[in-house]
Structures are given as structure tokens and as C-alpha cells.
Amino acid sequence: MRRLVAAIGIAIIAWALYHATLLPGFDFGDTGFFQTKVGSPTLTPRDGYPLYFGIGAVFLWLTGADPARALNLASALEGSVACALVVLAGAELSASVAAGVAAGLLFAVSYTFWSQAIIAEVYALHAIFVGLTVLLILSWARRPSMPRLAMFFAVYALGFGNHLSMILLMPGFAAFLMIAAPDGWTSMLRPRVVALALGIAALGALQYSWNLRGLWEWPNHPTLGDAVRTFWFDVTKSDWRETMVLELPPSMSMDRVRMYGFDVLQQFGWLALLAPLGLARLFSIDWRRALLMTLLYVVNFGFAFTYNVGDSHVFYLPSHLVLAVLIAPGITLVARRGRATVFVAAAVVAIAALRGYRDFPALDRSDDHRPATVLADLTRDLDSQHAILLADLNWQLVNGLAYFGKVVDSDLAYDWISHVLLYAPALVRDNRAIGRDVAVTERARAALAAAYGPLLPTTTDPRVGVSTLTEVVRDLPPGTRYVLCVLKPSRDLPLDEDDLSAATAALTGASLVTAKRDYAAIVGTVGNAPAFSLAADVPFTRRIDVAGVTVEVRMESWLAFDTIRRMGFGQVVAAHHHTLIVERGVSFAAFDAQGRPIRVAYRSNIFAPQHRYLVAD
User: Fold this and answer.
1) pLDDT per position as a tens digit, 56-84
2) Secondary structure (DSSP) of 503-559
């Protein structure tokens, strides 16, 4: 009972943190896709995640909120439950409720998990299944019985409906079942055990019948054989696996090692060293449990380490959960005596609380309306009666526009240029005949020009103005506090070096080189020499006093591998207020004495404003 009460307490604390910092609306990328798709009666195999969408639909119904907020709330609640499970697992392995509480709180305030628990993403729910299956298999080992084994099998199978990376837990679980079976490893191969496992696995796989059914709703539905092949290819993301899994170039291995060291310290600080101590304690007490935790960590870590994907940091989350759980027995090892465990655990709790206080403003997205602002500007003054928008956007914005056009502005008429390019002249002619403008985005304009040249000329739409960075900063009063961050941009979004140089000169009175390294930041007051200026090839954190305001510049990414960061690639916190989310390319903010942004601008990234064009008559 004490363990349960402690777990509930940590869950309440985590919920308070996550709810207070919750993203208020929709986001770009996968988050936008989830928020757009939730509540739909149809899933295709490529959509995947049937359990996640099913739970999301329940939250949508219960809350009555818009889909974006409903799914964000679901993640916050799921993240809170996951933290409670870390408490229970930590207490089970350490035989100390206090140590379990410390581990749970440390996981709750870990940077990456916190960032994923406040947006619509699958990782908070996945953490529930990782923690719960660990608890259930330990419960079975303590008191083996068929009902307990069936419960473990059922939860494990159910977890595949949220994320297929549940497969990474199988080596650890399989080995533990074999070595912990009371009647020897052969008892796990008895017909009734095998039948139980296969039967529950089959029932778990039925979750994906929702996705399979979606194939037959296509206009020309496939044959059964083609359907099965398409289903397997799309659900398992075969194209991604072939190009990304175990595809880390050997030449980048050492950089990945440095990135992982940076990542672990970002989550737990030097308290991460308690995890290997906890593992050592487990080996001295029960080598079977120690082997289980070792395999769970090694397999999940190994997958993330070799996964050549743009957001590899989120795939370390299961291994972070294992580390957090191992910190609990690490606390008992350091304490050595039972009574001292409470004091050591209290010290870890205090450190975790300080980390939470420090990171709270950096992870606070409660006022982050950037996606809605970007798309509202792009679609300004367009409605279905008077205009149609033909778009070609970065894939992250594609999902955002899908949500924006479905929920935020349902009167927006738009289509993707790739869908209509073959008959674009006829489409333009017909729309112009009924008095509707045809507006196009920058990339759609380039596609039209490449396909039709002077046959479909375009002019700049005067209703959408895009100022240069120099124009943004030019009229700021002297003495205004500012921060300018320049991170190596993505290849498809190059920097305007001349504009950046002119803007820097307008701020500082001198031309400073900021774009030649991976990370650069200038902080100061307009019209004066910078209070701080640094360019580096590795992430850094610095505190600076700017006209009486404490400013913390935090580079929170590893650009050699990070092309996607939902929480941004860095943060600027002024007067303990979240002043700026730093993206790749240029991120700028002028702010007041309370750290509140007065003016924010982005260039050469997905939050940068875009020109819009009209197809001429």
C-alpha cells in the first residue's frame, strides 16, 4: 500500500508539471499528423498505432476539447502514469519506497520524457507499457502462476498496438522467463504455455484489423495477397527499416558516443552514475533480475544508437526508463544501511526538484502558438469562396496544414501541388472563371514554373508580407535586450548571409561572424557591444547578465544527428521565463526585464514566414 500511495503521489506531481507546461494546440511533424487523424473512423496500415488512436478517441470524447488539446492531455496523463510505474518498479528492485520515489521523480523531470509528455506523441504511452511489463514479469517471478503469466503476455501483446518497438523488450523478457521459471527453462516450452503465448499474441494482433480494414475502403481495393503485402510493408515501415535501422555510418560512431553522453547528462545529470551502481547491487542480490535489466537496457540502447533517423534522441527513452529504475537500487547501495536510504533518497529527490525548477521554463510550451501563427499568416485572407491554395511545403508543415485546414479554418480550400500538377492549367482556368484566385506557396510556385514556365506566370500576393531579419530588428529602441541564435540550418533552408550580417550590424554596431559553426549566440542590448557572443561546434549552456536580467542560453541538441526536435534545438530563459525556443537557422527575440518576448522572428527554418504568390490571368 505504501508503494501505491507513493506512486500516486509522484503521478500527481508529474501531472501538475506536464499540465502546466502543456502545448495548447497543434504542432508540426508527427504530432500534427496524430492530432489530425484522431477521431477518424478509418486507419490505413501506414497510419499505424491503433491503440494510440483508440485511446486518443476516448480522450477526444471525454474532454470535448479540440483534437490537438485532447491528445496533448492524453500524453500528459499517460506520462504521469508512466512515472508512477517507475516508482513501483524502482521500489520492487530496491526494496525501498523512498528510493522508488526518487527514481520516479527523476524520470518525471528528465528532459526528453518531459518534452514528449506535453505533446501528442506515442512515447508516453510506450513508457507505460515498458514499465508495466517490467512490473508484471517481476511479479510473476516472485509468485509464478499461469494467471500472472497470462497477464504479462496480455499487456505485452497490447503494447504492440501503440508502438512496434515493444519487440526490443523481447530478448530480455524471453531470457528472464527461461532462467526464472521455477520448473526450469523447459517448462516455458510446454504446449499450454506456448499456446497461451500464441493465443494472446494473436488477440493482440487483432488491433491492427482496424488498419487492414482501411485498405478495403480505397476506391480500387487490393486483392487479399496484395493487401497482406501492403499491410506488412506499411505497418512495419519496411522502407524506413531498410535505410535507417543499423545504418549509422561507422565514421560517425564516436560522435554518436559523445552525443549519448550529452543526452544522458541532459536527462539525469551526474545522478546517472547511480544506475550502474544499482545494476551492480542487483547482480549481488539476484543475478536474474540484473540480467533482465541489462538486456532491456542494452537492446533498447543499441537500437537507438544505430538508428540513423533525425530524432534518434526519442528512441533512447526506453533505455532512459531502465536507467531511472536502476537508480533506485543504486541509492540503496550508496546508503549501505536501511535507515540511511531515506536520507540518500531525499538528497536525490532534492536534486530532481532543483532540476525540475531549472528546466520548467525551458520546457514550458503553454504559450507556444507558433504553428498556428505561421499557417495563419500563410493562409491570410483565403476562403473557399474567393480562393484556392496550392501548396508544397516541408513535410512537417504538411501535417500542420492538414490540421489547420480541418479544425482551425475549415473554410480554407487547398490542395497539394503534386496532386494537381498534371492538370494545373485547367484548374487555374476554371477557378479564375468563377472569380476565385489561385494562390501558391513558394515551393508550389517553383513546381509550376518548372512544369509550365511562362504559361502560368505568378505575382507576389501583396496580402502576405515577409520582412527581412534586418527590417525586424531595425526599429528596436537602443538599449532593448535581445538574443540572436544561429544554428546550422537544414540543407533545404539555407541562410541569407547578407541579411544576417546586416541584422547583426544593426543590433551590435559591428559585423560578427555567427553562421560558420554549428551553434552561435549573441546576447546584449541594441546599439551596444554584445554582453555575450559565442560560436561552437558542440552544444553549450551559458548564463549572462544583460542589463540586470539573468539570461540562460541553452543549446539542447546535437546537430550532427538531430534534424527534428519537437521542443526546439535550444532554449533561452530570461528572468526564469521562457523567452525563446531556438530552432535551426536563425532564431531571434527582443525581451523585457521580466524575460517576456517583445518581438520574435525566425528565418531559415520551418517557423520562418513564407511568401505567397498568385497565378496571374
Assistant:
1) 999 999 998 899 999 999 999 999 999 99
2) HHHHHHSS----SSSSEEEEEEETTS--SEEEEESS--EEEEEETTEEEEEEE---T
